[in-house]
Specification:
By secondary structure, the protein is mainly alpha-helical. It contains 21 helices and eight strands. Helix 4 packs parallel to helix 7 (157-168), helix 5 (123-138) runs antiparallel to helix 15 and helix 13 (321-333) packs across helix 15.
Length: 519
């Protein structure tokens, strides 16, 4: 029995996102793990709430230079929403953004399948394909890992896929606009969408050559115009980041040091690439207190099985370009230092040579994020198998959305449900309101068990300028007069600093910290 249209349109796309997010939301927490980059991204959104409708100027709040938001669209929307809600707006705006990203990914999966499914398919099969597309992308382990890690720039993943779906359907101008705008939600996903759009354009132009010179010129002109439109929009949005992008292209990309000798969290892939075993070995792997980003790379059983089933049935037309591109992307996602089950392989990754030919590739610091490109390709490869199964065993085919969701959520290392991060800050910051205004230096804000970005997240609790660099969160050697020095931790564990002892009793004290006014 089919669902009523209103439920399918409004409630069904929210079903899985709510299942994943509701526990953290009910606790009033930020959806995501405190061990990833949540604190830094939430800090940027907190600054956006203070400066809204302008985007935040970081240099006004720290001693560091400016650094633009990597996802200005999400930052601007969440900053405005948090400002409108008030004191509790931070986690509400953040969690709304995560839910919207999950729903957007699901809608993108629907649109992608709608663009790829043959016109002759019946209505029931089309609905099944759309449901499979929605569930596949909403529960994609690599996407859930980005959410867990607080990588809000990946929440725009669905926008780039929507752009590709429009291009597949012949809506070049709308697709170009969406693709250009996707640079405002995340440069990585916009870059991947641009690669797919370029390849699709070349494919269509080559195919048009069979129709004569006139058809070839029309296709080339149309795709060139769409490319210029998308590139112009993206360039305008990404212009604050151009200096960093160009420096990386010149061979000055960020260096993260040598690969680890072993990686105990290999299912989560916290380093530079995806562990080869993590593609096919199921199982959860708690990160514990580790401060890492999580990139679960499980490719699943259901979607690859459908792809093989369709290929064996002859519905896919044999081996096509996507059957070659998908393993190539998987291979490149392994990164520069291949590992198997946490053990390094003493050989370089030869597939990275192909990646170096792509403009912008040197800015990719964690190659496992290429799985955000591999996942929709796998969905496209699975569609022929879905059509074959729906035609031969419709009773079994209707369970595919449930099977795929269970495959992704139960067998992968992605967390179920998504974790939460408390919105609380040390009580000492609330006591600073009674002290004279002045910038803030913090001691004890980094170290074992303390995330170095937490001190910036806590700025929303006191609103003072920080005498810290967000890229190097350590206190300055000299604290200028008129500043406030905060030492975090209980009295017995606070750092015994000579300069603190000379200042005498603190101006404010709580069980979790103390504050002195610098004379």
């Amino acid at each position: 029995m089919s669902l009523p249209p209103l439920i399918r349109a409004c409630l069904f796309p929210l079903l899985l996102p709510l299942l994943l997010c509701l526990p953290a939301m009910l606790r009033g927490e930020y959806i995501g793990s405190p061990g990833g980059e949540l604190y830094g991204h939430a800090w940027m959104q907190g600054l956006a709430a203070r400066s809204w409708p302008m985007l935040p100027q970081v240099e006004a709040w720290t001693t560091a230079g400016g650094r633009p938001a990597i996802d200005p669209i999400q930052t601007w929307i969440c900053g405005g929403l948090a400002r409108w809600i008030g004191s509790a707006g931070g986690p509400v705006a953040w969690n709304g953004m995560v839910l919207a990203g999950l729903v957007l990914a699901g809608h993108a999966g629907v649109r992608l399948c709608r663009a790829l499914i043959p016109p002759g398919a019946d209505a029931r099969t089309r609905r099944l394909a759309e449901d499979v597309g929605m569930v596949s992308l909403q529960t994609a382990p690599i996407f859930l890992g980005s959410i867990t890690s607080g990588l809000t720039e990946d929440l725009g993943w669905g926008l780039a896929i929507l752009a590709v779906a429009d291009l597949l359907e012949g809506r070049r101008w709308r697709g170009a606009i969406l693709l250009g705008l996707s640079a405002g939600t995340g440069l990585y996903t916009a870059w991947m969408g641009g690669i797919v759009a370029t390849g699709l354009g070349i494919w269509r132009i080559v195919a048009a050559a069979r129709g004569g010179r006139g058809a070839l010129l029309r296709q080339a002109a149309g795709w060139a115009g769409a490319g210029l439109l998308a590139g112009g929009i993206a360039l305008g949005i990404a212009s604050p980041h151009l200096g960093r992008i160009l420096s990386a292209e010149a061979g000055q990309a960020e260096q993260r040091g040598p690969p680890p000798r072993t990686e105990p969290l290999w299912r989560l892939n916290p380093w530079q690439g995806a562990d080869i075993a993590s593609f096919v070995v199921p199982g959860k792997q708690p990160a514990g207190e580790a401060m890492v980003r999580e990139h679960p790379a499980w490719i699943g059983v259901a979607l690859p099985g459908l792809a093989l089933y369709g290929l064996s049935g002859g519905l896919s037309g044999g081996i096509g370009p996507l059957h070659l591109i998908w393993p190539l992307v998987l291979g490149m996602s392994v990164g520069p230092a291949p590992m198997i089950a946490g053990e390094p392989i003493p050989a370089p990754n030869p597939l990275l040579t192909a990646l170096r030919w792509l403009p912008g590739a040197s800015n990719l610091h964690h190659h496992a994020r290429l799985l955000l490109l591999a996942e929709p390709i796998l969905l496209a490869l699975a569609l022929p198998g879905l059509l074959r199964l729906a035609g031969s065993r419709p009773g079994a085919a209707r369970w595919l959305p449930v099977i795929i969701a269970a495959d992704h959520l139960l067998l992968s290392a992605a967390r179920l449900p998504l974790p939460g991060t408390p919105a609380t800050s040390p009580a000492i910051y609330a006591e600073l309101e009674a002290l004279p205004p002045g910038p803030l230096a913090v001691v004890g804000a980094s170290g074992p068990g303390v995330h170095p970005q937490k001190v910036f997240f806590d700025q929303r609790a006191h609103g003072r300028r920080l005498l810290l660099d967000p890229d190097r969160p350590v206190p300055l050697r000299r604290v200028p007069a008129g500043s406030v020095l905060v030492v975090l931790g209980p009295p017995e564990s606070r750092p015994r600093m000579e300069e603190t002892a000379r200042r005498g009793p603190p101006a404010a004290s709580t069980p979790d910290g103390a504050a002195w006014i610098v004379p």
